[in-house]
Write a structure and sequence with these properties.
Elements (H helix, E strand, L loop, with lengths): L4 E7 L3 H15 L3 E3 L8 E6 L4 H13 L1 H6 L4 E5 H14 L5 E3 L7 H9 L4 E3 L7 H4 L11 E5 L1 E2 L10 H4 L4 E2 L2 H13 L4 E5 L12 H10 L6 E5 L8 H9 L6 E3 L7 H6 L6 H14 L4 E8 L6 H14 L3 E6 L16 H24 L5 E9 L5 E6 L4 E5 L8 E9 L4 E5 L3
Parallel strand pairs: 1-2, 1-3, 3-4, 4-5, 5-6, 7-10, 10-11, 12-13, 13-14, 17-19
Antiparallel strand pairs: 8-9, 15-16, 15-18, 16-17, 18-19
Helix pairs in contact: 9-10, 10-12, 13-14
The structure holds S-adenosyl-L-homocysteine (SAH), iron/sulfur cluster and FE3-S4 cluster.
The site of iron/sulfur cluster has 10 residues, from α7.
Length: 437
């Protein structure tokens, strides 16, 4: 019997890449590959890359540099680059790192088995097309292995928004929605294999239009699946948050009270220059409507500091908006110039100014995050348990509001959803006790 070939995949960037990596390993599973977590053991190394900020893109080249000696020892080793750097830099990657055998953009993963076979035969293989077809329809069906309690499910890809700083519209292409029947079939399959919570993914997930009633319609349809206990979705654009989706936060019990709704900045002048297409005031009113529908909603956001032309006054407007919204968690970044995007052509702020503003912003975000976490003490929440905790005899899971919660493990198994009373708030997680009825 021939030995199975081994595949090592390293994933960078957003959750959509995590989902794509799973699907790629399944597609190559059909070609006789099994996954390994050791690059030195692999017959094929695939880097699933991110292009969002300069540092993310540079990581790819330094990682490839590390594989040089592996390739020298093992000439049959195939090295592939997938994801957003592959899409953005294509042939440039093969020029900079001639040891790369295969480059595949995010819309061409259904062609991966064929590309891998070509690379296996010693040819260079590159595909960064944007074909019309649904790449997921052509990927091998998911194998029937058991799964952990949580899973990602991509329902929408691409972006038509063209924020002035962002590469995603170029690396992921135009907005497309997967047909609802395929999404629902995939969700049924995940639930049969042990999944209890599904996070619907899309670069603009709330622009989903593959179901009547848009994303809200899809969420209500998925909520009908027995055994599926929780639904989340990410990432949303404020302008695509329609009435039905706002209402769903109050109507659909399985939809969790946590929403990632990036705003990026609090100054109208900067929002305009970012091409976000809404004002700070409109965003705050939207949050009010969401909180009216679901009073305990936890909000999360993304922020960019040091965008070209950002003054101290503009930056102060971002801090004010944060104080008004009181985010439960947030991600914040220094603006990074991306080739080919409009903002890259403008006057740039110094690194010192960006560093200093990022520190102030993060201090404020941490304060609110901490306050939101501490406010959970004494409350009862649902916790979906995932795995043993840090200390012996504990299990850890995620609360409805996405906090990590540690509980004494007696009689709890992964995949159990239990009511828990929060008793303590630690640096990065909460401690709780099972509520016995
Ligand atoms: N589609 C999502 C997120 C896209 S990228 C959305 O619209 O919200 C994730 C985050 O990376 C963005 O929300 C933004 O905060 C950050 N980001 C994108 N481009 C960036 C850049 N050039 N420099 C710094 N941060 C950036
Ligand atoms: Fe990028 Fe803006 Fe599209 Fe989000 S909405 S992916 S930030 S262009
Ligand atoms: Fe990065 Fe591409 Fe996601 S650029 S954030 S991996 S869509």
């Amino acid at each position: 019997m021939t030995q199975p070939k081994k595949l090592f995949i390293k994933t960078y960037g957003c959750q959509m890449n995590v989902y794509d990596s799973e699907r790629m390993s399944e597609a190559l599973g059909g070609e006789g590959y099994v996954t390994t977590d050791r690059p030195d053991d692999a017959d094929m190394i695939l880097l699933n890359t991110c292009h969002i900020r300069e540092r993310a893109a540079e990581k790819v080249y330094s990682e490839l540099g590390r594989y040089k000696s592996l390739k020298a020892e093992k000439p049959d080793l195939k090295i592939g680059v997938a994801g957003c750097v592959a899409q953005a830099e294509g042939e440039e990657i093969m020029r900079r790192q001639p040891m790369v055998d295969l480059v595949v953009g995010p819309q061409s993963y259904h062609r991966l088995p064929e590309l891998a076979a070509r690379a296996g035969a010693g040819a260079k293989a590159l595909d960064t097309e944007f074909p019309e077809e649904d790449k997921f329809a052509h990927l091998a069906a998911r194998p029937k292995a058991a799964r952990g309690p949580t899973a990602f499910l991509t329902v929408q890809e691409g972006c038509d928004k063209f924020c002035a700083f962002c590469v995603v519209p170029y690396t992921r292409g135009a907005e497309v929605s997967r047909p609802a029947d395929r999404v629902i079939a995939e969700a049924h399959d995940l639930v049969k294999r042990g999944v209890r919570e599904i996070t619907l993914l899309g670069q603009n997930v709330n622009a989903y239009h593959g179901h009547e009633g848009g994303l809200a319609g899809l969420i209500h349809a998925l909520a009908e699946i027995d055994g599926l206990l929780r639904i989340r979705f990410t990432t949303s654009h404020p302008n695509d948050m329609d009435d039905a989706l706002i209402a769903a936060h109050g109507e659909c019990e399985k939809l969790m009270p946590y929403l990632h709704l990036p705003v990026q900045a609090g100054s109208d002048r900067i929002l305009k220059r970012m091409n976000r297409q809404h004002t700070a005031e409109e965003y705050v009113r939207l949050i009010e409507r969401l909180r009216a529908a679901r009073p305990d909603l936890h909000l999360s956001g993304d922020f960019i500091v040091g965008f070209p032309e950002e003054t101290e006054e503009d930056f102060q407007a971002t801090l004010d908006l944060i104080d008004e919204v009181r985010y439960g968690s947030a991600f914040s970044f220094k603006y990074s110039t991306r080739p080919g995007t409009p903002a890259a052509e403008r006057d740039q702020l110094s690194e010192e100014v960006k560093d200093e503003r990022l520190q102030r912003l993060q201090a404020l975000l941490v304060k609110h995050q901490r306050a939101a976490q501490d406010a959970m003490v004494g409350r009862e929440v649902g916790v979906l348990f995932e795995k043993p905790g840090r200390f012996a005899g504990q299990m850890v899971g995620k609360s409805d509001h996405l906090h990590a919660v540690h509980v004494a493990a007696d009689g709890i198994a992964p995949g159990d959803l239990r009511r828990v009373r929060i008793v303590e708030s630690g640096p990065n997680s909460l401690m709780g006790e099972l509520v016995t009825l």
